Amino acid sequence: MKVTQQEMAEARLPLFYRDYCAHLLIPLNRCRIKKLWMPWECEEERHAHEKCEYEERSRIMTKLKEAEKAKQQQQ
């Protein structure tokens, strides 16, 4: 984690989004508020956050698949 629970609470992030990529979501939300949530604004921040989420979920899925494979080999 690159941000603390306190920083996430101050940024008012919902609990669901307080994950490994929260350090990118905080500036993204600030940009969104500043730019009035225009969809074409904050593209760089949004892309960075989405990429982080994708990589994190891919990493988790890889670990789960490896654990399942190890479990099957033990049986």
TrEMBL record:
<keyword id="KW-1015">Disulfide bond</keyword>
<dbReference type="GO" id="GO:0005758">
    <property type="term" value="C:mitochondrial intermembrane space"/>
</dbReference>
<comment type="function">
    <text>Accessory subunit of the mitochondrial membrane respiratory chain NADH dehydrogenase (Complex I), that is believed not to be involved in catalysis. Complex I functions in the transfer of electrons from NADH to the respiratory chain. The immediate electron acceptor for the enzyme is believed to be ubiquinone.</text>
</comment>
<dbReference type="GO" id="GO:0005743">
    <property type="term" value="C:mitochondrial inner membrane"/>
</dbReference>
<protein>
    <recommendedName>
        <fullName>NADH dehydrogenase [ubiquinone] 1 beta subcomplex subunit 7</fullName>
    </recommendedName>
</protein>
<keyword id="KW-0679">Respiratory chain</keyword>
<keyword id="KW-0249">Electron transport</keyword>
<keyword id="KW-0496">Mitochondrion</keyword>
<keyword id="KW-0999">Mitochondrion inner membrane</keyword>
<dbReference type="InterPro" id="IPR008698">
    <property type="entry name" value="NDUB7"/>
</dbReference>
<keyword id="KW-0813">Transport</keyword>
<comment type="similarity">
    <text>Belongs to the complex I NDUFB7 subunit family.</text>
</comment>
<keyword id="KW-0472">Membrane</keyword>
<dbReference type="Pfam" id="PF05676">
    <property type="entry name" value="NDUF_B7"/>
</dbReference>
